[in-house]
Amino acid sequence: MATENTPTAAPLETNHALVIHGAQSCHWESVPMPVPEEHQVLLRVAYVGICGSDLHYYRDGANGDFQVREPLIPGHELSATVAEDPTGELRAGTPVTVHPARWGTPQPGLEHAPNLWPGGSYLGSASTWPHTQGALAEFIVVDRTMLRVLPEQLPIRRAVLAEPLAVALHAVEQARSVGAHPETARILVSGVGPIGLLTVAALKAAGAAHITATDVVPQALERAERQGATVCLDVSKDSVPERSYDLVFECSGVDAAIASSTSRALRSGGVHVQVGMVSPTSSPIGLSRVISGEIRIVGAFRFVHEIDDAIRLLESHSAIEDVITHELDPKDPGPLFATAADPRLSGKVIVGVTGTPQP
What we know:
This protein is of the alpha/beta class. The chain has eight helices and 19 strands. It has helices spanning 52-60, 162-177, 194-205, 218-227, 255-265, 287-292, 306-316, 333-340; strands at residues 16-22, 25-30, 40-49, 62-63, 66-67, 77-84, 95-98, 101-102, 121-122, 139-143, 147-149, 186-190, 210-215, 231-234, 245-250, 266-274, 296-299, 324-328, 348-352.
């Protein structure tokens, strides 16, 4: 019997996907039905989250240096149910999410950081050739090792946040790796788009008591307050206190915000965690303050194992689902991507592919 957490199975004869052909050329179209090999599982996709990289592929036909050179199915944030497991280990209808990475070649000294190994791949990415097709389809196949079976109490809709929440949790772990203590630190989260919002949620769940959120969009700051930010500052009109923060999570990727963190907001000895992606030519940091204040800068790139922690956190903290502001139709990509690109309108935008519709 189907439940809210296990949508009714669909016929397996047809498959459709949202396919990007180039800048602002994107269509919901028929694609081949994938056939799983023994080490793979066929999934019926329920929900997919729209990420910044998806927006770039749609708007620009590229994400940074990675050009769309063949039709690309975007999407790496998903929840789904098992449609077919060739081994019979997982029954049809089992709710899952997916770790979207395949690790590359192990490197000496990076044994515990497979996210940094060269030669890996990520769902919905043009960084590989052929491109690694993504999740924004009715049916996909993934390696069995990428699956994470959902706990019974975690709704499949909320589980679509596992991947971006794992990014936020990895950023928190990166802060701890250089001796920062989020539980007691005075923290600034710069930029509260979807990843910034989830970083606020992750910090709140970790016990952080002093979280300041900054942005230039009042609606985004309202969402940050609901996730646990104790102070919200609109930096288009509010000043950020100087030398006041032990720890900054920079989630916007905006040069001015990065420069402000390292030169003004952090106290001496503070830690700057760069979460938001920047362009290859970006150079916002003035090193004089980094030297004189012994500012520590650490990057946070995707995640390793934190998706398992994200699943547990989503199960126990239902309010995190509030970062989802819109559930839209993949058959109409123009409004879908326009809404996701406008922080005045939206936090996290998700696509209901074959999931249970929500009001």
